[in-house]
Amino acid sequence: MILNDEGRMSNGDITKDDETGMQSKAYFLNCLDDFLVLRGEKGLLAVCAPDVPEEEKEKITRAMAGRGFDYTTHYRSQCGDIFAGAIVSDKTTFEAKAIELRDELSKGIQTKYGVATVHITDNDTREKAQEVLSKLEAHAYTAIGRQPTQQPAP
Amino acid sequence: MMTEMQPEEGPRELSMVERIRNYAPLRAFRVLKRMKKSLEAMIGEIPNAVGLDTKKSLAASLQSYTDMLDSYDDSAYLGRNEDWEAKLGVHGQDLLMLADSVQRTAIAQEGAVNRYVEKFKLKIDELNAKASELKEAKERYLSAARENQELLEEMMTDKVSGARSRRYFFKRLTEDLLPFSEKHNTPLSVIAIDLNRFKKANDTYGHQAGDAVLKQFTQLAHDIFPRPNIVARPGGDEFMIAAPQYNEQEAYEKTEILREKVDNHQFTYSEIVTEDDKKYEVTYGIHITFAAGVRQHEKGISVDDLCKGADRAFYAAHMEKNKTVKYSDFIRQDRGSERETTVRPVKNIISRRQVE
Description:
B: 59% helix; disordered N terminus
């Protein structure tokens, strides 16, 4: 039996998230591990939206898809729904992209959400994808005034 | 002679009636005061949540009775047997009535409290059930996450060699590496590798030896092509490497480094053999070489064309031994092909030691 990250029956593709068609968390992390060691500058962005209704989830998915991320994922963590994306980009362009995304979300999303970003220049991090993503998740969560609890290890 | 004892002169013994008259007021007073304390305690125990108003009114009534009690100087009654019986009797009666009222209220409140307690208990049971449900859900989630991770690993990895699987290789190439290269205009090369005389090694030393060779080759390939490069084994003795950020020349040079490394590497396989009731660990040395072809991605070409290009280059390298041929792609001719004969039909033992 194939289950998705939340223990529900999956569409059978372990690399994809059922709800949004984005990458599953585990597969995203695998790609992100490769992505982080690529030469050049890159940016990572995470949107955390606890208790977000389905229609708003779709809006976030569309907003993320429209930003041209090289890799995107959606999964549910203890902090709520997490949407994350990674892209090759210089800092200025990436920050402009993040602001653009925030603006779009602020117009279409009623639920409280938090956005966190990190920009990585060539070789300035030796962190694993899981660590980077966990930190982003925590920052996005605290951005809406909540305290993330510790994540269970998969 | 018996002497009759005379009673000594002392204080006159009080008659029962006198004793009662003298001490009863004090005792009654103390009884009333004790009753007051116990009533205070009883009222205090009534939870605010279930009867604050009743509690306040009972406390007020008690206070008014006890104020009256306090106004009597008990010592004033000692020896004065005026109307203490009547007064105390009245107060006592009132206090008893109050006590009764407090008790009835307490019983009623206790019922309410009990009902609340029951409700709390139900709530706690409900919460416990929810907690255990959540715990189970968490277990299911963790177990699903573990299973998914295992499934993903299984999908991604070739168990025999430890390289990536064919499915993973083409998925990454199609969905990720090729679009990435086109979008960011970064180089991407594909290398097709075929191990020479692997079948012979397999036939001579057995499949386990063949598996050991595949594992060791994968390790060498990972040393030269670490992440983000993808080393995959589509099947048999074929390997494919996807090298993002390497152009054709860089990929060729890296492949050449790998070729030299493999050429100079002693692949080994150990097994336990029994001779004359003695066990020996015998290690065999196996020599393997490979031929490879490299193809760089160009805008607009498909994954299929890219891999076919690398395959064609490999095939030319394989067919035209001892030549470095410039084909439509860079082609690596296996310079060590003459050493293929070192995979001898006679087993090449490089160490033998007794283990038992």
